[in-house]
Write a structure and sequence with these properties.
- This protein is mostly helical and 122 residues long.
- It has helices at residues 2-33, 44-60, 62-81, 88-112.
- The longest helix has 32 residues, at 2-33.
- It starts with a helix and ends in a 10-residue tail after the last helix.
- This is Mitochondrial ATP synthase subunit G protein.
- Belongs to the ATPase g subunit family.
- Keywords: ATP synthesis, CF(0), Hydrogen ion transport, Ion transport, Membrane, Mitochondrion, Transport.
């Protein structure tokens, strides 16, 4: 355990030295590449204004997303009513989508537990 701590300290020291040496140049390059996104003047008031604009813009988009959700749900209902006419390709795509959703759920659970596999019977 002590050797791992020493190794971790060594890696952290190397990383901090790298950042100290190259961090300023990287910051300048990043700011130059993204200067079109920088608001002038860069003040706290401007940041507050932008955060409020983002919040209320997101709130204003809820009705549109709500309608899109119900349209998608109606489409799924129609597919379910006409499931006898469904092609094998469509069923395969739906099955793969469901499998992908389940896999992302499992991955999220594993990450949430700190990358441990306890509780699963593998």
């Amino acid at each position: 355990m002590a050797t791992k701590l020493v190794q971790l300290q060594s890696k952290a020291s190397q990383a901090s030295q790298f950042v100290a040496k190259h961090g300023c140049a990287y910051y300048k390059q990043l700011m130059e590449q993204n200067k079109q996104y920088i608001q002038e003047p860069p003040t706290v008031e401007k940041c507050n204004l932008l955060s409020k604009q983002l919040f209320y813009t997101r709130l204003a988009s809820i009705p549109g997303r709500y309608e899109a959700f119900w349209k998608e749900l109606d489409c799924v209902k129609q597919l379910w009513k006409n499931r006898q006419e469904m092609k094998v390709e469509d069923a395969g795509i739906a099955a793969l989508f469901g499998l992908e959703c389940f896999a992302w759920f499992c991955a999220g659970e594993i990450v949430g537990r700190g990358f441990t596999f306890t509780g699963y019977y593998v």
